[in-house]
Amino acid sequence: xxxxxxxxxxxxxxxxxxxxxxxxxxxxxxxxxxxxxxxxxxxxxxxxxxxxxxxxxxxxxxxxxxxxxxxxxxxxxxxxxxxxxxxxxxxxxxxxxxxxxxxxxxxxxxxxxxxxxxxxxxxxxxxxxxxxxxxxxxxxxxxxxxxxxxxxxxxxxxxxxxxxx
Length: 165
Fold this sequence. Notes:
Layout: E1 23-28, E2 32-38, E3 47-49, H1 59-65, H2 84-88, H3 94-100, H4 128-132, E4 136-139, E5 153-156
Antiparallel strand pairs: 1-2, 2-3, 4-5
């Protein structure tokens, strides 16, 4: 019942009814954008809210987008971490994540699977071992008033970049 598609398709949620891999962006509290990815087949309104991410590249740009102090997280010359708390707080909430990635309403409806898209889901490389070696926690959702008891929230166990454990 907390889903934007619960009462059917409308102008605000029409991207939720696109094919899997489509971005659905909406504004909350009149000031924060939330980034979702459509997960079901076309014409079925289902999407997953991405609440947080672990920054592994593009950190300087994310800091700039969040208007954080320069060199607050990583020095590009030495790769030295200055403040782990600032790195953790860079994208550990849906509003922070959208700001860090500079996502807003103009990204609503973008196809992440389109090879012409400026978005890249994942590049293969040395991080694959870390990516493939984890456990998923399944729990109840947070930040909603309807259906909060449903176990529809998932995150990587013991990951310090989760918005709220």
